[in-house]
Design a protein that fits this description.
- The structure is a single chain.
- The chain is mainly α.
- It has helices at 58-72, 76-93, 101-107, 115-134, 140-171; strands at residues 2-8, 15-21, 36-40.
- It has 2 domains: 2-40; 58-171, no CATH class.
- It is 53% helix and 11% strand.
- α1 packs antiparallel against α2 (76-93), α2 (76-93) packs across α4 and α3 (101-107) runs antiparallel to α4.
Length: 172
């Protein structure tokens, strides 16, 4: 059995389609049908809005955007894999030497102001390894925190110089 409902917000008049599905074998303890419900567009009260990085290259921007989409869709393993790919891409873009990600993260010390950031990136590398190699999804809060760290890294490596130059130019 499939039931369709169209809900309209009385305030903003935005529509939401509700699809409720059940079959004859899905019943609760009282014999009432159990429904699987989906909403379109998806309800995203905890959704992240991708940040805009003016100096980020097209490839890195695409990886970042897809990572945010995966997070918003609840695909935490794919979001974590995307973050790991983004970190590898940043290292390659900044010509950081190293054969493996561990070495590349260590060699980021030349660009970063303190070791705490390096330690955080190593922790994220371990989380990414668990997700990608063992197919173990991290907790949503840990993925959100890793996204925050990566956004801070992107801001520091790609935007700070640009914004600083704009500020100096504005003072002239």
């Amino acid at each position: 059995m499939v039931e369709y409902n169209l809900w309209i917000c009385a305030g903003c008049e935005t529509g939401v389609l509700e699809i409720k599905e059940s079959d004859s074998e899905s019943c609760d303890n009282d014999g009432e049908p159990e429904y699987h419900t989906e909403y379109f567009p998806k309800r995203l009260h905890a959704a992240l809005v991708p940040k805009r990085f003016k100096k980020l290259g097209t490839t890195l921007e695409k990886i970042y955007g897809e990572t945010i989409e995966c997070f918003n869709d609840g695909s935490l393993i794919l979001a974590t894999a995307g973050l790991r790919a983004l970190l590898e891409g940043v290292c390659d873009d900044k010509n950081i030497s190293g054969r493996v990600l561990k070495a590349k993260i260590n060699n980021l010390r030349t660009l970063l102001p303190n070791n705490n950031i390096i330690e955080a990136l190593h922790h994220f590398r371990f989380t990414g390894n668990e997700a990608v190699h063992k197919l173990k999804a991290p907790k949503i809060g840990n993925v959100k925190l890793a996204i925050d760290v990566m956004e801070d890294l992107l801001n520091y490596l790609y935007e700070m110089e640009y914004k600083g130059a704009r500020l100096l130019k504005a003072q002239e």
